[in-house]
Design brief:
Distance between the termini of chain A: 40 Å
Largest sheet of chain A: 8 strands, parallel, barrel
Helix content of chain A: 25-40%
Structural class of chain A: alpha/beta
InterPro entries (chains A, B): Arg_MeTrfase (IPR025799), Arg_MeTrfase_PRMT5 (IPR007857), PRMT5 (IPR035075), PRMT5_C (IPR035248), PRMT5_TIM (IPR035247), SAM-dependent_MTases_sf (IPR029063)
Strand order of the largest sheet of chain A: 1-2-3-4-5-6-7-10
Oligomer: homodimer
Number of helices of chain A: 18
Family (chains A, B): Belongs to the class I-like SAM-binding methyltransferase superfamily.
Shape of chain A: elongated
Pfam families (chains A, B): PRMT5, PRMT5_C, PRMT5_TIM
Protein name (chains A, B): Protein arginine N-methyltransferase
Keywords (chains A, B): Methyltransferase, S-adenosyl-L-methionine, Transferase
Chain lengths: 631, 631
């Protein structure tokens, strides 16, 4: 996790270097400051400039590094892009574009935009913003959104603590009757309408204004699925502790901890109400940050992969590399479970004869080691076979046989589906599972290898199940969109989901068991799952997980509710949707999923639609046109 | 410049960790070591493995980091991909692919491939290599190429110092009669044929074997335009200094200095002939490295931009950002020249009246400052105008007018082509030149602004000329090819050329002068330039440069032979060719260049062809379809 960023939201300051010095003295990292003086009102000729004096302070007051590292530009709040009179609207557009152009010129990382009016009343705001988003190259646009709608008039808007800005407050949109009504609307709806009209633009972010009243945990969770880049924390929401220092309520503390995990920048706003300095507030945020639990091994391992899309492995078609084996061999939890499962299974084999264990897909031998340890624990004499198709891994296995004296182990360089032998094993051990359980073709491989087992033989694993949940994540949707092709939207990705919101708990999708003697084998599947949206949200795709029974009560799981502690071999899988779909709170989300096969290939098709039938969504990946797994 | 890498080429070693320890003790960074034992000859069933023992040492002797950081895999030299009998060829192909697969498995950064036979005799080598290049994801392929052809039989091939490898030497291709003949062919031709058949693949590199005899300076220069990744330095080529330590000849020292500039890795090979250790050789190379002149400001500034393609600025259509102004304002040399030129020009204005200076395209004011300093130096009373179309830069100018008391300067927020005034200036100063002189539309802008000058008025600059040379650079060609579109191959790029070879000295292309009163203004141009290739080479594109006369004898130049010392405002410009063209030494390279205009646009078209007319090459960018500059 990166260092905590705490900045200050300031009124317009002429002497920016002096302000930054003070801010740095109080241990803050930068400021969010107005780009132009709020009294500098421009008419609709705003840009054809006939004035003699400069329109704002010079860019030379800081070098470009200073602007980039320490300043976010606040766009004038008084402009009204959705005013009823055209003259006011056109003038506001000129002001907006002039300020955005100036911000780009300065190379500040972002502009902080005023809170839009509610959805239906902000179409021109959305249009002007969408134009700017499309033109700007590096600049980010942060839209100020209240966490909870204000019940009262906005007497505490932070800018009003500035006497100069106060002059303009009379004109501010927040004060009108219309807006008092509007303030009761869910602010998320305002955001959702705006960003949907801007097609989920990747440079568009939320600056969340933390309010004294907090919404439900579910609503907070939904914000954590949104691209929140900044949190504006007014000094008004702080309580005072026994020593007279600022502190936050328990619920606010929890919220901060959640925001810390998402690399959000914090901007303090308003007047200091404790000891007349901002420093105690800054120190308090750093104190909360320091209370975060220190990172365990799994968290450290996962950190660089958060929300990073990877193509799923195709270990059947491609040979894994040494490095990949090396990474997965380090998952102690997983191999401990395998050791337990093999031990239990061996204990069920007769103790008066040699037990035969075949490891199929032995790789560089971690399951062979588990089986050898299990044989000792179960006190069984064993004969083992390690079957591996990757010629490179076979070199490792043969070296191990010598160096680790695997005298009872035979190395077999063959595809498990084609090895013919008269041996019949008591136990067949494999680790062919993917993030979605069956997506690395474990069913087909184990079916092809089950003739190696005698009729009462045991497969470890003996069962695995996939799980699905509809998720909102404009972050992931944009990552897929980078390639902007149907193919990329019809391909699942392995990804450590982080900036996302699940609209409902996961549901079971497909299940497979092994071995399957005396039954017709068919690994095609179909499932229709019906979810109920816990909050209004957008579905950008489906999150996939799996769990597996190795043997008896020994299991592995990456399903969120039952995730095996400390196991890091599998990230979730993400199936994108080409078009995001909006659902109301309580509405039914119908997910259809197929597992299909043909032409030596296996593939999935999927679709998502509202239960009401008001909208019909396309089925993704017909005939595996965009993504398939080779047999 | 990154740290010097010195490695050791070793015979096959079973105990790689021990060898690496010794190598690190002798201050070396890694090894180039055979992947398989040279005695491990495989038949054409090489891969369907029925042996019991491992085929080579285990990947587990190092972790994947160790393999990646410290080992380059040497592919067996004895295999003959172009043998006359099919059985030998097929067997060689299996060996080659097995070894490349093993190298990929290990995640070593590169394989070192044996020297191919001469062009016409290595078609199967090229085919097999091309297949591997297309499949491998990260692996680099380094082809071992002699710097000078060996006159004798190859008694000093480094592997033969190894007694085990010696067993195979009898079979080595180098020893046959056929190859003694072949050894007289220019090794560059062998390389050129191979890489052309592999379509200049970006993962294909040269490992240059440094010989005791060195080729001409021109041939060395040509190698510096090739993707040389490694230099193999035999202990045989070292002399002994008076203290008994190894040293290199002056010419070899110069070559090493050139290779250092290109981030080449060095691999020592052969037996130590001085003090029975490799350490003195390593120390000597580090000594040479330390003798490189330390980096001046310009070199440091340029380092991150070597061979990095940038789209040319379009300051007329786009507004420059504050950061861009900031960078260019730091070019002290350039502004000193402007100051000199304005001073001289002012000295030619009458001293009994106020001189009028107009700066067109004033940006954030650096030329205004030059003009103010020049007025003091020339002891002239002046009235100045700073004309700038970028509204953001006008804010800076107006702030400067106040803070720096520019009382005699008027700021004019206008496009220089449309400002109408009754003032007539004595001197018009501008800095509108691009890397190719006219490519940022200086001609059109200054023609449009010249009515601001009175009839004897002076333009600074008063003249500028573009220059062109045909260049070989598979590095740059591949950078363009990443986008793989006609558009990308018909766009010029601003780039600090580094890994390239100019086939001939630059020639003048287009020239422009200002002002142009009493003459028909036409800025269209055509030039046909005829170059003679100094060595056989491939033309991948054209390098463009410019020089300019500011006033009198005060000039600026980025043309290689006359480049102004320490000036860093302009990198060269690179016009790519869609298809690389091969020229023989002494052959004529005909370059046609046009500057054209229409529909408020200016664009270039260009083509390259042999003077013999044996090949007709397409004209690039017809009608400016891929690239144009907006007026």
């Amino acid at each position: 996790m990166s260092r905590l960023f705490v900045g200050l939201e300031t009124p317009f300051v002429q002497d920016l270097p002096a302000t930054l010095n003070k801010v740095h003295e109080e241990k803050m990292n930068g400021v969010a400051a107005p780009l132009f003086h709020p009294r500098f009102q421009r008419d609709d000729d705003g840009l054809s400039d006939t004035r003699d004096g400069p329109q704002t302070r010079s860019d030379l007051v800081l070098d470009s590094r200073g602007w980039t590292a320490s300043v976010v530009g606040v766009v004038s709040k008084w402009m009204d892009l959705d005013a009823t009179t055209q003259r006011v609207r056109l003038s506001a557009e000129k002001v907006f574009k002039q300020e955005v152009a100036w911000a780009s010129h300065l190379s500040v990382p972002a502009v902080l935009l005023p809170t839009p009016r509610h959805a239906e009343q902000s179409s021109n705001y959305a249009r002007v913003l969408n134009q700017s988003l499309t033109q700007a190259q590096y600049l980010q646009f942060w839209v100020r959104i209240l966490l909870t709608p204000r019940q009262q008039s906005c007497a505490k808007a932070p800018m009003e603590t500035d006497p100069v800005a106060g002059l303009c407050a009379a004109a501010a949109v927040m004060e009108t009757e219309e807006n008092k009504h509007e303030a009761l609307v869910d602010p998320w709806e305002t955001w959702d309408s705006l960003r949907a009209r801007c097609e989920y633009h990747p440079k568009l972010f939320v600056a969340l204004e933390i309010t004294a009243d907090l919404p439900s945990a579910e609503v907070v969770q939904r914000w954590l699925g949104e691209p929140v880049k900044a949190a504006i924390v007014s000094t008004d929401i702080f309580l005072t502790n026994r020593k007279g220092y600022p502190a936050l309520s328990q619920r606010h503390q929890k919220l901060m901890a959640q925001l810390f995990q998402h690399k959000v920048q914090f901007y303090l706003s308003g007047r200091p109400r404790h000891r007349e300095k901002m420093l105690p507030y800054v120190q308090y945020l750093h104190f909360l940050y320091s209370k975060l639990p220190s990172q365990d091994r799994k968290t450290q391992f996962e950190a660089p992969y958060l929300d990073y899309l990877q193509a799923p492995l195709q270990p059947l078609m491609d040979n894994l590399e040494s490095q990949t084996y090396e990474t997965f061999e380090q998952d102690t939890f997983k191999y401990n479970q395998y050791e337990k499962a093999i031990t239990k299974a061996l204990e069920h084999t007769p103790d008066d004869k040699e037990s035969v264990v075949v490891v199929v897909g032995a790789g560089r031998g971690p399951l062979v080691r588990c089986a050898l340890r299990a044989a000792t624990l179960a006190n069984r004499k064993t004969r083992m076979f390690a079957v591996e198709k990757n010629a490179n891994a076979v070199i490792t296995l043969r070296n191990l046989k010598i160096s680790e004296k695997w005298d009872n182990v035979t190395i077999v360089a063959s595809d498990m589906r084609s090895w013919r032998t008269k041996e019949r094993a008591d136990i067949m051990v494999s680790e062919l599972l993917g993030s979605f359980g069956d997506n690395e073709l474990s069913p087909e491989c184990l079916d092809g290898a089950q003739s190696l087992l005698h009729e009462n033989g045991i497969s470890i694993p003996c069962e695995y199940t996939s799980y699905v949940a509809p998720v909102m994540s404009s972050k992931l949707w944009n990552e897929v969109k980078v390639h902007d092709s149907v193919k990329s939207f019809e391909t699942p990705y392995v990804v450590r989901l982080h900036n996302f919101y699940a609209l409902a708990p996961t549901q079971r999708c497909f299940q497979f068991t092994h071995p399957k003697f005396n039954t017709r084998i068919d690994n095609r599947r179909q499932a229709e799952l019906r979810f109920v949206a816990a909050e209004s949200a957008v579905v950008h795709g489906l999150a996939g997980y799996f769990d597996a029974v190795l043997y008896g009560d020994v299991t592995l799981s990456i399903e969120p509710d039952t995730h095996s502690d400390g196991m890091f071999s599998w990230f979730p899988i993400y199936f994108p949707l080409r078009q995001p779909l909006r659902f109301q709170k309580g509405e039914e989300v119908v997910v259809d999923f197929w597992r299909l096969e043909g032409n030596s290939r296996v593939w999935y098709e999927w679709s998502v639609a509202p239960g009401s039938g008001t909208c019909h969504a396309p089925i993704h990946n017909p005939n595996g046109r965009s993504y398939w797994i080779g047999l």
